[in-house]
TrEMBL record:
The lineage of its organism: Eukaryota, Viridiplantae, Streptophyta, Embryophyta, Tracheophyta. Its main location: membrane. It is found in: Membrane. One of its GO terms (cellular component) is membrane. This is O-fucosyltransferase family protein. The keyword Glycoprotein applies. It comes from Eleusine coracana subsp. coracana.
Length: 394
C-alpha cells in the first residue's frame, strides 16, 4: 500500500506540469517484493548526467505546487523527462488549489483499482467472511470491481455474519525498531538486538553514542507497538463478545502462536487470509508482500468494524480514510490513543475490571469522533473535506 500516495502525488504533479506520467519504479526491498520498472527506451537514458534526476534534496518534503512550477518545469521543458526519486511525501496538503487537491483525492478513492486477480480473490475472501457473495455498493464496487455481484443469492442476507477486522502491527521489524521491551527476558532482548544489527545498523550505531529513552519511558509515552495480549484486553473492555468473528490482518506476528494465545482463547472465531483461503488460492500472491497486504486491505475496509493497534501505520491510515470516504458514518474505526491506553494498561495488575472497562470505553469513544480534515493533514487519512467528500466530476 506504500505506493498509493506516491502514485496520487505523481498524477497530481503530472497534471500541474501538463506532462505525461510514466508509472514509477517502486522500491524493491525485503518487505515490498514487487518489482516495477521504467519502459526499456527510458532505461537507457542517463538521467543524472542530463540533470533530470530529482531527489529529496531538490524538492523539500511537503513542497507547494509553486515549487514544482519554478524548479521542475524548466527541467522538463529542457530535457523532456524528469525522474523523481523518494517522491512519496513531496507534495503539501495545504495550501494547495482545490482542483489539485480534488484530483489527488479522486485518484486515491476512485481511479486506483486492484488488478483482476486481487479483486477476484478479495471477493472470495469476503464471501467466506460474510457468508454471502459481496453485493453491489460504491465501496465494494471500488474494491472488487466486476466481482462485487449485483444481487445477493435468493435475496436473503439474514444468514450474513458480521465481523471485526483488527490490524495487529507486531512484526519483528516494528518490535525491534521500537526499542521497547515486551516481557521476554534476556532471550528477547538478544534476539531483537541481533535483528537490529542486521536490519537497522544505523540505529545500532546511534545506540552506541547516544543515550536513548528507556523502554519504560517509551511505553509510558505510547511509543511501543500494542502486543496481541494488550489488544485483546482493549477489545474485551470495549465489549466484543467471545462469539465475535475477528479477522486478523498483518504479517507474521513476532512470538508466533505464543503471543497469539490470549486472543485466540478469548476469541475462538479468529480467522486470517491464510485460514480462509486454500494454499492454492494464496499461491499467486505468496512471494508478493504488497499483494498479500491488498487482500488484508479489502477485508479491513469492508469490515463491519475495524480496529487498529497503531495509529501511525500507513496501512491502517489508508483503511480508516477509505471507510470514512465510503462509509457514510456506518463503518466505525477504533483508533486508540496509545499514550493514554498505556497509562491504563500499566495498572492492569491492580485496577478493577469495571474501572478498566469504563476507562477504555471512554478513551475509545473520544477517538471515534469524526472531524473535518485538520489543516495540513493527509486527505488519504482524513478525506472529510470539501475537496474530497463531494465526489464531483471535473
Amino acid at each position: 500500500m506504500s505506493g498509493t500516495s506516491l502514485i496520487c502525488n505523481a498524477v497530481t504533479i503530472t497534471r500541474l506540469l501538463n506532462a505525461t506520467l510514466v508509472i514509477p519504479k517502486f522500491l524493491y526491498s525485503n518487505v515490498w517484493l514487487d518489482k516495477r520498472d521504467l519502459p526499456v527506451d527510458l532505461q537507457s537514458l542517463d538521467l543524472e548526467a542530463i540533470g533530470s534526476l530529482v531527489n529529496d534534496t531538490d524538492v523539500m518534503k511537503e513542497a507547494k505546487p509553486s515549487v514544482y512550477v519554478k524548479k521542475i518545469l524548466p527541467i522538463l521543458m529542457k530535457n523532456r523527462v524528469v525522474h523523481f526519486i523518494g517522491f512519496g511525501n513531496r507534495l503539501s496538503f495545504d495550501p494547495i488549489p482545490s482542483e489539485i487537491q480534488r484530483l489527488r483525492c479522486r485518484c486515491n478513492f476512485h481511479a486506483l483499482r486492484f488488478v483482476r486477480k486481487i479483486q477476484e480473490t478479495g471477493a472470495l475472501l469476503m464471501e467466506r467472511l460474510h457468508g454471502y457473495r459481496p453485493h453491489s455498493s460504491s465501496l465494494e464496487d471500488n474494491l472488487l470491481g466486476q466481482f462485487a455481484v449485483k444481487s445477493v443469492p435468493n435475496g436473503n442476507m439474514s444468514d450474513a455474519s458480521r465481523y471485526l477486522a483488527v490490524h495487529l502491527r507486531f512484526e519483528i521489524d516494528m518490535v525491534a525498531y521500537s526499542l521497547c521491551y515486551f516481557g521476554g527476558g534476556k532471550e528477547e532482548e538478544d534476539e531483537l538486538e541481533a535483528y537490529r544489527q542486521i536490519h537497522f545498523p544505523v540505529l545500532t550505531e546511534i545506540k552506541k553514542t547516544t543515550k536513548l529513552p528507556s523502554a519504560a519511558f517509551l511505553r509510558s509515552e505510547g511509543k511501543c507497538p500494542l502486543a496481541p495480549e494488550e489488544a485483546v484486553l482493549m477489545l474485551a473492555a470495549i465489549g466484543f463478545k467471545r462469539s465475535t468473528k475477528i479477522y486478523i490482518a498483518g504479517a507474521e506476528i513476532y512470538g508466533g502462536s505464543h503471543r497469539m494465545a490470549a486472543i485466540s482463547r478469548l476469541y475462538p472465531a479468529l480467522v486470517t487470509k491464510e485460514t480462509l483461503l486454500s494454499p492454492s488460492e494464496l499461491e499467486p500472491f505468496r512471494n508478493f508482500s504488497s499483494q498479500l497486504a491488498a487482500l488484508d486491505f479489502i477485508a479491513c475496509a469492508a469490515a463491519d468494524a475495524f480496529a487498529m493497534t497503531d495509529s501511525g501505520s500507513q496501512f491502517s491510515s489508508l483503511v480508516q480514510g477509505y471507510r470514512m470516504y465510503y462509509g457514510g458514518g456506518d463503518l466505525p474505526t477504533i483508533r486508540p490513543n496509545k499514550r493514554r491506553l498505556a497509562s491504563i494498561l500499566v495498572k492492569n495488575a491492580t485496577i478493577e475490571w469495571k474501572e478498566f472497562e469504563t476507562r477504555v470505553r471512554k478513551l475509545i469513544q473520544q477517538t471515534k469522533q469524526v472531524h473535518e480534515r485538520p489543516v495540513a493533514r493527509s486527505i488519504y487519512r482524513h478525506p472529510r473535506c470539501p475537496e474530497c467528500m463531494c465526489r464531483t466530476e471535473f
